[in-house]
Fold this sequence. Notes:
alpha+beta, five-stranded antiparallel beta sheet
Amino acid sequence: MRAFISVSMPEDIRLSIESVGNEFKMQGLTLVKKDAMHLTLQFLGDINAEQAGQVVAAMKASKREPFKVSVSGISYFTPRLIRVIFAGIAEGSESVKELYGKLGSELKARGVDFENENDYRPHITIARVKRVGDMHRLREVLAKNSRANFGSFEAKTVALRESVLTPEGPVYKSLYELKL
């Protein structure tokens, strides 16, 4: 199974992000569906049932107190060639980074492979860019929403999710949820 670990987000935050994401409906962009929006902590790739058990053990060993997360601003990676557009994490970013690091250490100790990012930047992907016909319009929409506020929530749950790729986009299934 193709899997990842993420912070669970409430519906109202995803709705708020989706409303701004609609401004990005343009040729060459694929919007992330509201129900697929998430704050990834670790992308695991393909794992088997035994490894899933080790992932759950790593999650339990990484448990911490709930923390506040504020979601604000639309930005993107790689300034010259925009590939991913995302909503940023303001308050709570350091807590998310600490959890990311702790999970990474626990996964590594259990021999579970994962995608290790040297410069992990907590974010919620809202669109993937293939080839934009109107880059000027895209940059205008990005600038307009660079300080958008999507609200805050208390991060209380971390989930191991399976990602099933379909022609309509990925479908996520929760395999295990850990209450913080």
